[in-house]
Specification:
Distance between the termini: 48 Å
Order of helices and strands: HHHHHH
Shape: flat
Mean pLDDT: 81
Protein name: DUF1846 domain-containing protein
Structural class: mainly alpha
Radius of gyration: 17 Å
Number of strands: 0
């Protein structure tokens, strides 16, 4: 089936639905455990331009927006590979160039 222009405009990643669903799922898991719960985020936490290329409508910073939704309800630990800091690799270390 060919995608026509009018159909293709309806195809895309829904960032708000993603944030809502992920927030609910994470908070449900947090409530299930009495002790600490550690959740690993896969992929880039910011500036995920690959995902935005392959998922039309994907906000490259949607994972950071998700963490902002959770900031008052959770403690967040961000682990960074020391080698990326030493090499000042902003794409791997996730800090914008002007914050290094």
């Amino acid at each position: 089936m060919a995608i026509t222009p009018e159909k293709s405009s309806k195809i895309g990643f829904d960032n708000e639905a993603y944030i809502k669903a992920q927030t609910a799922s994470i908070l449900e898991r947090v409530d299930r455990y009495q002790e600490k719960l550690y959740i690993e985020f896969g992929g880039k936490i910011m500036y995920d331009y690959h995902a935005s290329r392959v998922l039309p409508g994907f906000d490259p910073n949607v994972k950071m927006r998700l963490l902002q939704e959770l900031k008052d309800k959770t403690d967040i630990i961000l682990c960074v590979h020391a080698g990326d800091i030493e090499r000042k690799n902003p794409r791997r270390f996730i800090l914008p160039v002007n914050h290094q």
